């Protein structure tokens, strides 16, 4: 998991008041159904770094003796900046797929259509299962959870569309003698890019 | 009787002859059980509408058999086939196919009236079906007084009215925005969950996600279908 996603996610939880470490973990889990598998050690490490960078500060201990942190003025500013800045370097969890298909397209003897189809079947299976999950559990979660599941669904959608594109591109390249298309409508021979 | 509402066994459909021959479907076999929705995906021209037309008895295979509720369609005479299409199969056409000189409510009521339901009862059922797709207010409009998306939803209401056992929908969300599409999928899914069987042709992976399985067609051949479900724990472990 991307470190900065956790760092900013935790800092954002301070926006509504001071908190201690375990409380942060519980809140984070509640919003993501534990899907991020955050352990309490990670929470404390991240808290230390946030304090070191001056974004949160210790404001003493609560009745149970737990150290409580609050967001600083600098932290609020950084958080506000983060919300309005576009994400430019995201983690690319599926880049292995992009590499696999690009290599399949140039390696001799690989049936690209079969590679595409195997992936499409798997991606569609995930699509079905996340859609099910969303339909059945939409009532029992908050909007943060919902948006995270939707993110997966939309990511899968673009992946499946990209697979269609890969298949069509490879097939077109493999059949140079097809019936001529009027020049104005000739499908562009774009290279696969963007990953 | 078969447990499957729809069964394709080795179905091929060839259009034209000789040079002009098109293998629109090539040896396709699959089943759809009661309570199951199957999505059909594939590039344009891959045979999706052909498959649906065969399932609905609007067209006959060149070889192989199509059965609905255990009855082979090839064995039915024209009258029996018409009855089956009217009473048990709801069909949403890719181009809606509404009767232009009937109002929205009359279009939806038509299959019920033809099935022998009294005019009043048919109208009541029609208005209820229109309400399900969010169009109760437009019951008195004629198709040419409606937007494309509204016409499409009327076609969906017409396919769902009554106790259809099999719902066949060809791109039923093609003209709808994302919010309306999801509302239509809710209605369709509720019908399936109540025991109907359905086939949904779609280009949208996100809408195919509402089906229990997706089958892919390429050049008339069925290439694959989605596998078994994963548990919520497996799914949420990958939420990042
Ligand atoms: N009546 C017909 N006569 C001759 N060929 C036909 C006829 N109907 C369909 N075809 C051909 O059969 C193939 C499959 O057509 P079909 O309409 O099933 O495709 P589709 O998958 O529904 O495409 P789309 O996504 O564009 O709706 C195409 O090559 C089409 O040209
Ligand atoms: Mg079609």
UniProtKB/TrEMBL annotation, chain A:
Q: Where is the signal peptide?
A: none
Q: Which domain of life is it from?
A: Bacteria
Location of the Transcription regulator PadR C-terminal domain: 94-168
Q: Where is the Transcription regulator PadR N-terminal domain?
A: 10-80
InterPro entries in alphabetical order: Tscrpt_reg_PadR_C, Tscrpt_reg_PadR_N, WH-like_DNA-bd_sf, WH_DNA-bd_sf
Question: What name goes with this protein?
Answer: Transcriptional regulator
The species is Asanoa siamensis
Q: What is the lineage of its organism?
A: Bacteria, Bacillati, Actinomycetota, Actinomycetes, Micromonosporales
From TrEMBL, chain B:
Q: Which domain of life is it from?
A: Bacteria
Which PROSITE patterns does this one have? Answer: ABC_TRANSPORTER_1 (PS00211), ABC_TRANSPORTER_2 (PS50893)
* Xref: SMART domains: AAA (SM00382)
Using the record, list the residue span of the signal peptide; answer none if the entry has no such feature: none
Q: Which Pfam families match?
A: ABC_tran (PF00005)
Which InterPro entries does the annotation name? AAA+_ATPase (IPR003593), ABC_transporter-like_ATP-bd (IPR003439), ABC_transporter-like_CS (IPR017871), ABC_transpr_LolD-like (IPR015854), MacB-like_ATP-bd (IPR017911), P-loop_NTPase (IPR027417)
Q: What is this protein called?
A: Macrolide ABC transporter ATP-binding protein
Which source organism does the UniProt entry give?
Answer: Asanoa siamensis
